[in-house]
Amino acid sequence: MSDPEDWFGLPECFVIQPFDGGQFDKRYEDIYAPAIRDAGLEPYRVDRDPAASIPIEQGFRRAGGSAKGSLAVIGDSTFLHSGLTGLMNAVHQRADVTVLIQNNTITAMTGGQTNPGNEKTLAGVETRPVDLVAVCRALGVEQVEVVDPYDYAACLAALRDGLAYDGTAVIVTNRPCMLFPRKIDGDGPYQVDEDLCNACQQCLKLGCPSLRTIEVTHRNRRKVEIDVESCTGCSLCAQVCKPNAITKVGVA
Q1: Which residues lie below 8 Å from residue 243, measured CB to CB, with a gap of 6+?
Q2: How many CA atoms lie within 13 Å of 121's alpha carbon, on the beta-carbon side?
């Protein structure tokens, strides 16, 4: 038989991304990664591991954390297959961490497979889904809040409550993955009234791919339009639009 080490590749050297606005990426690719490989090791970016968010957040908080606050973000499928132990440890260690579980009822990052949180198995057979809230409470989390991520004000309130909580807190969102719009029960596409838009670009901070700037400007800033073909009707942009320039298509 071959050497067991060959089954898994090179021994790994774990590297954690410092919080420097992304400047570390170039140094990592140009300097650190090649040097680690030259030493006979395989570099492993822990900060790029979706399953590591909860343990990393615990360490970050114990190291001083951020004055602005921070939280661990993890998807429902990743939480169920590798995040439970991190949360259990956080409770046991009395860690002051806030965990945001994005329950989009799908394994989005690997193609949309089902997971134990779904009502059907991979074979399409109806089954009993795992209750994320019940699981978190069973692990000892006392502060668990479920929030609709399409409700902007409710999300901000939940985040503030979670970050202010003294101990381990969990926030669970409950909307389908945006990459599967056929599953989203939205309110129909939205549109921007070009005359009312003041080019504040507050809506662009949402990161929605359906929002884009146009050539028309106001005070040297570009106004915004919505691609109605890709808009899923979540209404978040309308909720943050102060001049009320964003409305549902067909509604005056």
Answers
A1: 196, 197, 198, 200
A2: 4
- 184, burial (CB in 10 Å: exposed 0-12, middle 13-18, buried 19+): middle
CATH topology of domain 186-248: Alpha-Beta Plaits (3.30.70)
Instruction: State whether residue 155 is helix, strand or coil.
Output: helix
CATH 3.30.70.20 location in the chain: 186-248
CATH 3.40.50.970 boundaries in the chain:
49-183
Gap between the Cα atoms of 223 and 201, Å rounded: 7
d(CA 198, CA 246): 11
Whole-structure pTM over 0.90, yes or no? no
| Residue in the structure block whose two tokens are 């806030």 | 98
How many angstroms separate the most distant Cα atoms in the chain? 73
**CATH architecture of the region 49-183:** 3-Layer(aba) Sandwich (3.40)
Nearest to 17 by CA among 68, 61, 56, 67: 56
CA dist 35 and 24 (Å) reads 15
Decide if pLDDT at 90 tops 70: yes
Question: Cβ contacts of residue 177 below 8 Å, gap of 6+?
Answer: 104, 105, 106, 108, 112, 183
Q: How far is CA 70 from the centre of its chain?
A: 13
- pLDDT given for residue 110 in this prediction: 75
Q: Which residues contact residue 213 at a Cβ distance below 8 angstroms, ignoring those fewer than 6 apart? A: 201, 204, 222, 223, 224, 225
Residue 142 pLDDT: 96
In angstroms and rounded to an integer, the radius of gyration of the C-alpha atoms of the chain is 22
Q: How far apart are CA 144 and CA 165, in angstroms?
A: 11
